[in-house]
Amino acid sequence: MIEIKHDNATQTFNQVAFQNILQKIKLEASTSENNPEGLKTEFKWLEEIGALKIVLPGELLDFNKPNMPALLNMLQAIGKANLSVGRIFEGHINTLYLIHLYANETQRNHWFQGVREHGHLFGVWNTQAQNGIEFSTQTDQYIVNGSKTFCSGVGIINRALITGNINHENRKGWQMVIVDMSKIADDKIDKESWKPLGMKASQSYTVDFSGYLTNESDMIAHPGIYLTQPYFSGGAIRFAAVHLGGAAAIAENTIEYLKDLNRTEDPIQRLRISNIMMQLVAGKLWLEKAGKNYDEWADDKNQEDELIAFANMTRVTIEDICLRIMDESNKCIGARGLMAPYDMERVFRDLSFYLRQPAPDATRLNVADFFINKQKATHEFI
Length: 382
Ligand SMILES: Cc1cc2nc3c(=O)[nH]c(=O)nc-3n(C[C@H](O)[C@H](O)[C@H](O)COP(=O)(O)OP(=O)(O)OC[C@H]3O[C@@H](n4cnc5c(N)ncnc54)[C@H](O)[C@@H]3O)c2cc1C
Fold this sequence. Notes:
Order of helices and strands: HHHHHEEEEEEEEEEHHHHHHH
CATH class of the largest domain: Mainly Alpha
CATH architecture of the largest domain: Up-down Bundle
Number of domains: 3
Number of strands: 10
Helix content: 40-55%
Bound molecules: flavin-adenine dinucleotide
Number of helices: 12
Largest sheet: 7 strands, mixed
CATH superfamily of the largest domain: Butyryl-CoA Dehydrogenase, subunit A, domain 3
Radius of gyration: 21 Å
Strand content: 5-15%
Distance between the termini: 32 Å
């Protein structure tokens, strides 16, 4: 069982209730994959135990405090229960973090109040194809043109942070805007666009935002701020944590499967289990260190490059770890173990697909650049 480790015993977040919800989410995963309503029930449960507001001021994992290792533990635990729930929850946390970092006080209070009082679920949709987002002026408002792809959780997200190009005398560049999803008609959501190998339950459909009217008060900070470092690259440790949760589910399922079949005395199977568990623990250690580094370095301009390099290394190492765990587990359980109703049939599909994240090659090359170019790196890392 993965717990959120935290010293502050006065907070109200109930760890036992959280573990119970995770168990329910896990048990529902094979059904919810094909539920047209998506993961509505799962997020209702998470809202009821206070998980959606957990990073807001005064809450257990308040962004204003050094809570990154605990947040990564939480993301990992949710990913272990269901990777699609983990994906959408991570998007919610990412949006709240962008609001925390860059929104003005009035906006922050308004959007955080939506989470506290109405259980609003947020998402960040930055990815797009050729027909991406443009904002153009329309009297005293802006009109949106274009679509976003990979809009995770679109059917259940209440407020989406979308990005797009703006070309106005006061604003030029890549602008963040919060969209009220209740104003987006169903026929703007292209459900046929989502026929993935795995992560079906994340319902990451393409959404056409054309015609949506937005105001200055919906715009977060200036154009270009979305890409501010070290936050932009450093945030990759959050999705890496969700990924490792999927690998933990595979590790646990593999051992249970071999036990059920009385195959644990075989030395080759034992060797593979030891390889799986060593990889998993290595991943946990990477995340733990990445979380600590994040807390120590995020607000220190002198450590920006170190933070990015460590986050990049963590992300690609965890990708490799997940692939190795899947490879070893695959051989352990064979075809029979990869068939439904065994959970592994779905978790393998989900993890294989979700591991495909932006710019994996460039991320590795950036790590090389850091060590080749930075004199200081040798003192920090070696
Ligand atoms: C389940 C899931 C949910 C998602 N949800 C969201 C979401 O809510 N919001 C959001 O904004 N995004 C979301 N995404 C999108 C995600 O952030 C990435 O954009 C996407 O996964 C990258 O896709 P890709 O592997 O096709 O990328 P690609 O960029 O096509 O990469 C594929 C390969 O090509 C290589 N490559 C890239 N560029 C070049 C080039 N110019 N020349 C040669 N090789 C190249 C890469 O290194 C990699 O090896 C989601 C993705 C998944 C899988």
